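U., I forgot to send this yesterday:
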Amino acid sequence: MKKLIDFDGLFDEKLAEYIRSNPGKYTEKQWENVIPKLYKQFGDTYVAKAGATPRQYYAAMSDEELCATLARHIEEGVPVSDFLCRELEGRSCPDALVGLLGRREEELLTLAVNLAGSNKKAYPAYFGILTSDVNADIKEAVCEQLKGGADDAKERALACYAAGQEQEMMLEILSRCRQRDERVYGLLLNAFRTGDDVPMHASYLAAYGDERALPVLLEYIDRDDIDFLEFRELKYAIEALGGEYNTPRDFSNDSYYQEIVAQSSMPVDPDKKSDA
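Result:
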């Protein structure tokens, strides 16, 4: 296996030399634009230690070598260059990358999720991550990827929900399905009717986009016991589904409303009623 090369470290050395050779050439703001261009050029610059340019170095590796190299970078504390990541991304989630999704080192797992993206080849491993004991941030990252391909993830999400596994995340994924499915609609509607988090469950109905939910939302928003945050999300969901709610409501005594007003730059008008 090829040796690990810290291309980012080598670039930093060249950049420091370039800056020393060009004192005062750019302002600090200009450097912010110049450095990414120099880094891109560096990808096509011959590096003697590698015997190739950074891009050529990784392009010559097999899928397995690339993924093993990525893992070694993390294990040995060598910075992972963007050239390695872009090469892996361009290979459309190879099997070797899916294999990394079974690892539990947080940094490696986070990178593997980002590189696999919404490719459905990764979905079995993704659901394995969601139903295992891993960092919540990693689960959130996985959830975002699955939302990007929710229709392909639907059956697994339904099965996990039925098994009581990460049900809120499963609802979030299912709410992004574009193909209509009575099972999905029924779960989202039932979660809204019976769940505690009204704003969140209303947002799922809005994201799913089935206008049949409008009567339920309109009935709920008319209740006197909802708070301002619930009202705001319900109104958004109603409008997202093509409906309207224009009844004036007074939330001047609502703690959430008062907090939002206090943090706003707008002057407080105690007599103003909100229909926002």
